[in-house]
């Protein structure tokens, strides 16, 4: 079985290639792919760039060219749901394109000719990633990183499960975030790729799941220190969580943080 790990930015996959043995780097369709082995099983890493079209193109290449049989997306997102805070992780159980609007021909958010607005994640993938995420974040909570209103009281990191909204727009104002929440009250976070990859995986009947580290609250401060967060928090999160997940997938020994 070939597992694929997809991200938009290099920093979101920092260190993952070091988990692979027998690494081979390939350029295809203008994108970089790294294939190798983890516990003797084939894994391919891919960087899509930002946006739904770029993500869909890369997901298709993973399936057609690299024969990916499961795809996991890892990256950052802006939190919009109640209680979704910086440093938390969101595991998408379903995905919607918040900028899809073919009305009045179709209801808002519905993808034309699919008869639905949401694409559903693969339940087993989500469950396995959830185990790894809880193990990794549990080890971090109270030790370092994000804090709550009191600088002396570390907050406990949370793994959320639910709706992820994707669109070709970086949501970076409180007004935009509030409008998105009003239209999609179940949305936990907003990003720019996941729903597109979910649609491609739906078309090919490929299991898909995404995990997102919350970098901001998708408000007027969303751009502040974004590169540093991706480099110093999101990348290490992804490495820790996916290392545990890959170990559990390919090695029957218990998962440890």
In a nutshell, what does this entry contain?
Helix content is 30%, strand content 28%.
Descriptive report:
- The chain has 257 residues and is an alpha/beta fold.
- The protein has one domain: Rossmann fold.
- Helix content is 30%, strand content 28%.
- It has helices at residues 52-64, 123-140, 174-183, 194-204, 226-250, and strands at 3-7, 21-28, 31-38, 41-47, 70-79, 89-97, 119-120, 159-166, 187-191, 208-216.
- It has a 5-stranded mixed β-barrel, surrounded by 4 helices.
- Helix 2 (123-140) crosses helix 5.
- The longest helix has 25 residues, at 226-250.
- The model is unreliable at 142-153 (pLDDT under 50).
Summary tags:
257 residues; alpha/beta; Rossmann fold; 5-stranded mixed barrel; 10 strands; globular
Determine the mean pLDDT: 88
- State the CATH architecture: 3-Layer(aba) Sandwich
What is the structural class? alpha/beta
CATH topology: Rossmann fold
In terms of topology, how is this protein built?
Elements: E1 3-7, E2 21-28, E3 31-38, E4 41-47, H1 52-64, E5 70-79, E6 89-97, E7 119-120, H2 123-140, E8 159-166, H3 174-183, E9 187-191, H4 194-204, E10 208-216, H5 226-250
Parallel strand pairs: 1-4, 1-5, 5-10, 6-8, 8-9
Antiparallel strand pairs: 2-3, 3-4, 5-9, 6-7, 6-10
């Amino acid at each position: 079985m070939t597992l694929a790990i997809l991200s938009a930015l290099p920093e979101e996959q920092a260190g993952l290639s070091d988990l692979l043995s027998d690494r081979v780097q390939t350029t295809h369709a203008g994108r970089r792919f790294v294939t190798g082995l983890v516990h003797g099983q084939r894994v391919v890493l891919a960087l899509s760039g930002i946006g739904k079209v770029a993500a869909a193109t890369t997901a298709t290449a993973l399936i057609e060219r690299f024969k990916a049989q499961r795809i996991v997306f890892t990256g950052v997102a802006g939190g919009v749901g109640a209680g979704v805070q910086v440093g938390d992780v969101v595991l998408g159980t379903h995905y919607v394109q918040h900028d899809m609007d073919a009305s009045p021909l179709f209801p808002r958010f519905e993808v034309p000719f699919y008869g639905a607005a949401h694409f559903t994640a693969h339940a087993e993938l989500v469950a396995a990633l959830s185990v790894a995420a809880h193990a990794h974040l549990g080890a971090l909570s109270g030790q370092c990183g994000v804090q709550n209103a009191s600088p002396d009281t570390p907050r406990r990191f949370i793994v959320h499960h639910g709706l992820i909204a994707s669109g070709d727009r970086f949501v970076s104002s409180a007004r935009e975030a509030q409008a998105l929440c009003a239209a999609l009250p179940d949305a936990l976070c907003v990003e720019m790729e996941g729903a597109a990859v979910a649609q491609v995986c739906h078309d090919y009947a490929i299991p898909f799941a995404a995990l997102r580290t919350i970098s901001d609250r998708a408000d007027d401060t969303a751009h502040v220190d974004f590169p540093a967060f991706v480099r110093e928090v999101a990348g290490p999160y992804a490495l820790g969580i996916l290392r545990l997940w890959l170990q559990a997938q390919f090695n029957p020994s218990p998962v440890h943080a």
